[in-house]
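re: the backbone from monday

yeah here it is again, tokenized this time
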């Protein structure tokens, strides 16, 4: 509230008993010194404002000369209200644009909030409407309310005081924080994903100091919607790790999201996803600003959270997945626990939100021989699925879960049986006790078919069962946590209701549905490294750095991607094979420890040696094979024949030449199309720039081989 100075129409009426009182007049959110109150008027410097206890209305700002020399005259009398002490009806608050004042600085007035037309502040039927806010951003109406509550001369009656307090609380506490352009900016976490945002275009604020190595980012420029928004923004260069404003634009899904290393983040390849997004820099207007809060017109909270409405026919659109429940129907579980298992599976199915546009489910029973009870296409309503599960009969027999898992991965997820294109495929395996066959091998087969395996184990194996198992860690290997497979432990089938919701949340988390076979976890990469005397010790270190940078992009494990290295001159030396190191850390350590040989250059013999001795033992394995040949000069022998033999054996060859390496030799070694498999740089320092292109080329070939 401005003190004096003219510019506001007065509030006419009789003050309380006409006695001089003292009241605080507010300047925005700064209180002015106490001012005397006489006959409902607050005396100021060169003007007066009527006290809120008087009958009348605070009008909009007007020039001083129109206001009668700044004495607040000329105000419009308020219409007669109800009898004293009876509150007037309070209509819903609304926004009104501010009118500029002669005494206000340019740009000083902001969007203000209009209080209800009838707000009883004491005896009489006065009303107060805030028409303007000062440059500090505090609405005049808020200052009036604060003044009224502080001033003893006009302390409201109890009912009016509580109403005023409620209105003030709603004014200060409700509504989203908004930018100066009126758009709301949402503060998000480091790991908020694109699919977590609901608007087509949304302004968000990323926090500072996000852990870059923990980001999931898929693509470059256009990112799969399961990517971290802040991670994508840093990867794109829109913001730094200091955080900042980002504008997110939702885009349609696509195929072949590429992998690019940028700004400290290595994005990953994804063959296909249902939706995408792009990121651009948020403007200054989209940053969070404290310019006041909007007034909520919603009814006061009753303490109960409103339930999210769900289209039962469409289902839960935020959990699109094709799910097969592989239940245990063996003698291990028995009839009684089998019924408890069915009850649990039914609860999970209902909570998932099954529908035409949500998750689809089917059931396979594992026993002596697997049986598909019903397919994805059979039921698209939760009630139908629940009834079908209750009708399942107990089969008995040995718990050949591995056999059932393999059968489900191979036969269940076909288009004819209801599988949907671009939707994650999940097998939820329920284990009660210990399987009778090899579950680890079955998990590898499932990965080959692009299926996510999620194991729910109940209780622990008996002493007799432990004696039958060679590898106690088979569950971890079968689910392969590092590659997107997950497991879930429950102590008993009894009282499992509390485990339903956590399991559903895990199944509906798209970040946990990335175990489909990708180029990152399903390739064998052999490096054939030139160790001739023309390379030199220092340049040889640059070659090893290149090899490390390519290798570290892949998920290396005993059931994932694998790396091998051979160094050659006239002779060949296997530095390590595909089976020597099954973790990324050990592979990178082995690369650093390679010692420079020095000698001549016989590239053709080296290719033949590598094809026979390094790739030979893994030729029938599930991974796709790649050979990267690095050389700096012309070979003393033929390279075309050995390279053709390697390609005939199913090995894709990339040739990387440096310095004096002849382009013809490089093309003769490379796979078709030769242009995209041949790389050359004049300097060894240029190898670093080739890393993203090599990785992208491997992933493209991998995807093409699966078409």
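seq for it, each position gets an aa:
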């Amino acid at each position: 509230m401005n003190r004096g100075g003219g510019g506001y129409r007065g509030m006419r009426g009789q003050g309380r008993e006409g006695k001089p009182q003292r009241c605080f007049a507010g300047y925005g959110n700064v209180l002015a010194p106490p001012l005397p109150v006489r006959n409902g008027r607050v005396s100021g410097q060169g003007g007066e404002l009527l006290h809120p206890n008087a009958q009348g209305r605070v009008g909009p700002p007007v020039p001083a000369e129109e206001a009668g020399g700044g004495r607040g005259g000329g105000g419009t009398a308020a219409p007669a209200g109800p009898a004293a002490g009876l509150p007037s009806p309070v209509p819903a608050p609304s926004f009104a644009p501010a009118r500029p004042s002669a005494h206000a600085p340019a740009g000083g007035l902001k969007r203000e909030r209009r209080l209800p037309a009838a707000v009883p502040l004491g005896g009489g039927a006065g009303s107060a409407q805030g028409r303007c806010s000062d440059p500090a951003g505090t609405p005049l109406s808020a200052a009036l309310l604060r003044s009224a509550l502080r001033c003893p001369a006009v302390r409201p009656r109890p009912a009016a005081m509580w109403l005023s307090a409620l209105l003030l609380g709603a004014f200060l506490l409700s509504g989203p924080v908004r930018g100066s352009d009126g758009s709301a900016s949402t503060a998000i976490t480091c790991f908020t994903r694109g699919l977590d945002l609901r608007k087509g275009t949304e302004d968000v604020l990323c926090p500072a100091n996000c852990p870059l190595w923990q980001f999931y980012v898929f693509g470059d420029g256009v990112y799969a919607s399961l990517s971290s928004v802040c991670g994508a923004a840093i990867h794109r260069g829109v913001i730094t790790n200091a955080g900042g404003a980002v504008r997110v634009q939702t885009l349609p899904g696509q195929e072949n999201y590429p992998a690019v290393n940028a700004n400290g983040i290595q994005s990953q390849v994804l063959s296909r996803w249902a939706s995408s997004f792009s990121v651009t820099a948020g403007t200054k207007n989209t940053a969070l600003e404290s310019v006041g809060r909007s007034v909520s017109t919603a009814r006061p909270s009753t303490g109960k959270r409103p339930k999210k409405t769900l289209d039962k026919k469409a289902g839960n659109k935020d959990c699109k997945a094709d799910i097969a429940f592989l239940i245990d129907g063996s003698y291990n579980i028995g009839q009684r626990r089998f019924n408890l298992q069915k009850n649990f599976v039914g609860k999970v199915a209902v909570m998932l939100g099954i529908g035409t546009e949500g998750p689809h489910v089917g059931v396979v029973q594992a026993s002596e021989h697997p049986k598909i009870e019903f397919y994805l296409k059979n039921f698209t309503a939760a009630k139908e699925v629940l009834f079908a599960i209750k009708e399942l009969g107990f089969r008995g027999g040995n718990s050949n879960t591995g056999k059932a898992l393999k059968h489900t991965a191979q036969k269940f997820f076909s288009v004819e049986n209801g599988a949907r294109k671009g939707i994650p495929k999940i097998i939820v395996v329920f284990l009660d006790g210990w399987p009778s066959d090899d579950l680890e091998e079955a998990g590898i087969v499932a990965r080959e078919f692009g299926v996510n395996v999620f194991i729910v184990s109940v209780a622990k194996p008996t002493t007799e069962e432990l004696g039958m198992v060679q590898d106690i860690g088979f569950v971890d290997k079968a689910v392969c946590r590092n590659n997107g497979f997950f497991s879930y432990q429950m102590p008993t089938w009894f009282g499992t209701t509390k485990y339903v919701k956590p399991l559903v949340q895990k199944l509906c988390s798209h970040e946990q549905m990335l175990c489909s076979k990708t180029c990152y976890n399903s390739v064998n990469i052999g490096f054939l490294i030139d160790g001739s005397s023309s390379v030199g010790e220092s340049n040889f270190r640059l070659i090893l750095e290149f090899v490390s940078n390519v290798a570290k992009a892949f998920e290396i494990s005993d059931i994932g991607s694998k790396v091998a290295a051979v160094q050659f001159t006239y002779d060949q030396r296997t530095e390590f094979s595909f089976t020597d190191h099954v973790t990324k850390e050990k592979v990178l350590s082995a690369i650093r420890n390679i010692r420079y040989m020095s000698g001549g250059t016989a590239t053709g013999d080296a290719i033949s040696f590598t094809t026979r001795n390094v790739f030979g033992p893994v030729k029938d394995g599930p991974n796709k094979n790649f050979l990267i040949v690095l050389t700096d000069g012309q070979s003393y022998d033929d390279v075309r024949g050995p390279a053709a033999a390697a390609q005939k054996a199913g090995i894709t060859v990339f040739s990387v030449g440096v310095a004096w390496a002849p382009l013809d030799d490089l093309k003769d070694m490379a796979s078709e199309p030769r242009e995209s498999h041949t790389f050359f740089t004049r300097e060894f320092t240029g190898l670093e720039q080739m890393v993203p292109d090599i990785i992208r080329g491997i992933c493209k070939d991998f995807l093409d081989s699966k078409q």
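The mean pLDDT is 71. Residues 523-705 form a domain with the Rossmann fold fold (CATH 3.40.50.410).
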